[in-house]
Amino acid sequence: MSQVSRRVSVRTLDRDEWAIHRQVRLAALDTNPEAFGATLVSQQLLDEADWRRRVDDRSWFAFLDTEPVGMVRLWYDPCTKPVPEVIALWVAPPARRAGVARQLMLTAVGTAQRLAGCADLWVSLDNTAARGLYQSLGFQPTGSTQSTSDGRPEMHMRLPRR
Ligand SMILES: CC(C)(COP(=O)(O)OP(=O)(O)OC[C@H]1O[C@@H](n2cnc3c(N)ncnc32)[C@H](O)[C@@H]1OP(=O)(O)O)[C@@H](O)C(=O)NCCC(=O)NCCS
After folding, report:
1. Which of 23, 62, 85, 123 could form a disulfide linkage to 70, CB 3.0–4.6 angstroms apart?
2. Whose CA is nearest to atom 37 of ligand 1?
3. Residue 47: CATH number of its domain
C-alpha cells in the first residue's frame, strides 16, 4: 500500500460541513462534466440552505489527511427507489489511482447491501476507469442502455443479491 492510500479516510459530513460538499461537487462538475447529469452552472446557483439540505447520511466524502478529495452518494427510497443507486462518484485527479474510489464504493455498497441487499448504477460505455472499478466490485451489466444528456451511450450495472 502506498503512502497516499494509508492517509485516506471516508466519512459522512456534519451539517456545518456543507461547504465541503459544495467544494467537492463543484470541482467534480468542473473537472469531469461528462460524468454527471447536473451542470456546473446549475449547482453554482445553489445557496447555503440548499447545500445544508443536501448533507445526509448517504453521501460519503474521502479525505487525504484533512483535504477533501472525492465523494459518492447513494440514492435510495424504500417506496420510490427500492434498489439503491450509486451516483456522483468522483475523485480529484491528483488523488486518483490510489484506491480512493474503491474505498468510497465499498462504503456506499456496504450500506446499499444492508438497506436492500443489492445496488445498481449507470456508467458511460467509454468510462473504462469506472467500469473497471465496478466490475472488480461485482457489478454486472443488466443489458439495459440509455443515452446521456450529451448523447453518449451508458449502461446499467447491478450488484446482485448475495
Ligand atoms: C473513476 C474514478 C472515480 C476512479 O477513481 P480512483 O480513485 O482513481 O480509483 P481507484 O484508485 O480506487 O481504482 C479502482 C479501480 O478502478 C479502475 N481504474 C481506476 N482508474 C483507472 C484508469 N485510469 N484506467 C483503468 N482502470 C482504472 C481499476 O480497476 C482500479 O483498480 P486497480 O487499481 O486495482 O487496477 C475517477 O477516475 C474519477 O473520478 N473519474 C471521473 C468521474 C467519473 O467517471 N465518475 C464515475 C461516473 S459513473
Report:
1. 62
2. 129
3. 3.40.630.30
Query: What are the 10-residue block averages of pLDDT along the chain, 162 residues in total?
Result: 67 97 98 94 97 96 96 97 97 96 98 96 97 98 93 95 78
Residue 115 CA to residue 123 CA, distance in Å, equals 22
Structural domain range at position 14: 3-159
Task: Report the candidate in 34, 31, 76 with the shortest Cα–Cα distance to residue 57.
Answer: 76
What is the best residue among 96, 137, 152 to mutate for testing ligand 1's pocket, by most ligand atoms within 8 Å of CB?
Answer: 96
Any atom of ligand 1 within 6 Å of the Cβ of 125: no
As a whole number of Å, the end-to-end CA separation of the chain is 29
Compute, in angstroms, the gap from residue 161 CA to the centroid of ligand 1: 24
Q: Which atom of ligand 1 is nearest to the CA of 28?
A: 42
96: its cell numbers: 486518483
Domains: count for the chain: 1
DSSP-derived letter for residue 28 is H
